[in-house]
Amino acid sequence: MNKEHKCHGLAASISEYIDGELSPELCLALEQHMSECPNCTIVVNTLRKTIELYKQPDAEENLPEDVRTRLYQRLQIEDYLK
Length: 82
Ligand SMILES: [Zn+2]
Known about the structure:
The protein is mainly α.
């Protein structure tokens, strides 16, 4: 079992993790993996910061789906998943 394989499985869960939609078990697995994987830590931190920038203090709307999709694409998660 190599780490790259594990990354592939967990990277698919990162968007859900950031949205708070990931199950507690998978959150834990992802957090444990991040503690030993700088790549995944960077992806999660970057996404979080970027999404926070999109959130207006006076707006409670969620990030629009198209913006979210473009954001993930821009951060090259698609490439990351390959
Ligand atoms: Zn990883």
